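Researcher: Next sequence.
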Amino acid sequence: MCSPGEAPPGPAPAGDLPPEWETDDERMAFLFSAFKQSREVNSTEWDSKMAFWVGLVLARGRRRGAVRTCLRELQNGFERRGSVPLGLGTVLRELLRRGKLQRESDFMASVDSSWISWGVGVFILKPLKWTLSSVLGDSKIPEEEEVLIYVELLQEKAEEVYRLYQSSALSSHPVVALSELRSLCAGLCPDERTFYLLLLQLQKEKRVTILEQNGEKIVKFARGLHAKVSPMNDVDIGVYQLMQSEQLLSQKVESLSQEAEKCKEDARSACRAGKKQLALRCLKSKRRTERRIEELHSKLDAVQGILDRIYASQTDQMVFNAYQAGVGALKLSMKDVTVERAENLVDQIQELCDTQDEVAQTLAGVGINGLAEMDSEELEKELDSLLQDSSKDSLDLPPVPQKVLSAPISDAELEAELEQLSVSAGDLAQKTPSASEPKTALGLNL
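Model: Next structure:
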């Protein structure tokens, strides 16, 4: 992007542009016009146009996921019917003032690290535009090819690189080769220049440090999401060299294993062809290769054993530090606490409780005893009067029956009694004249 020989991106897709982009020619003519030299001429129009382009520029950077841009790239991206926005330079200057964008040269100058020297060659602009005014960060409009950085997007992507490393197998040790880290971040960083910018951001946040060792650059990460990286020491370098030795030994063992298998296949082919001497030479070569593999395996086991002990010691150190911090905190919290003072405090509490109990008993005894004597006499008198009144006003209740209740009646007796009642009721109905009989008698008499 914005480098010689690099094709600038084309216009933005229609879906990423506002609705009036293709429908409102009058408004777009106003937005594509240059800004007034002074905002005071018409602050409302100036602010409206600035808000439109600021939102569009930031949204384009986030949509593309590129941390770098330049004036020429934005002009090509926002081209409309052969016209480019004339006020984009003013918009970029405003974004620089707000801190949403930053010149790449200024960003690199703000990182104080020893490894910036090897990165300068990567970031040299062609043609060279690192003037004194740009380094000092003046308020001039950026040049067309001057590289600018989306500050927030750079921070977010640097965080993604850090989390990607933490979740990978490389995080078993804080020191990793720069080439291995570059391969790990290939999907996140489209080019090497962006990758170095992200490392610079992590370096600025004190979450990585980079050192060149024997012509190879190695990166040390901070342990923990919010921790600060410590300077790279001899232990880190020694562990890194052991890890590299382990990797080289493993690769050598793999290569020799393939070579031994090839010698075995050659011996079989020679046997089939009846070439006994050739088959013997192949078997001897296979035997020598297997002995070399055994020697390398023993060395590899030794290196892995050392690494395992180092990792175990790091865990022990972490536990020791935790214990030490806990002991320090416990000592601080019990600084003024002793057994004698605790016993004295308990005795004081017991003494105060006993005194409180005595005071409460004394106060309760004086008031309650006098009241109890007076109340008991009155209560006895009242009880006697109630007893006398109850004897006078006793109720006249009927006497208690003395006759013993008969045994319960059985079902047979109840049925017999029911039949008697039915017979008595029938006789009574025959003796009683009906309502029609008197009328007949009366008719006969007439």
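Model: The longest helix spans residues 276-333. Residues 31 and 49 are 6 Å apart (CA to CA).
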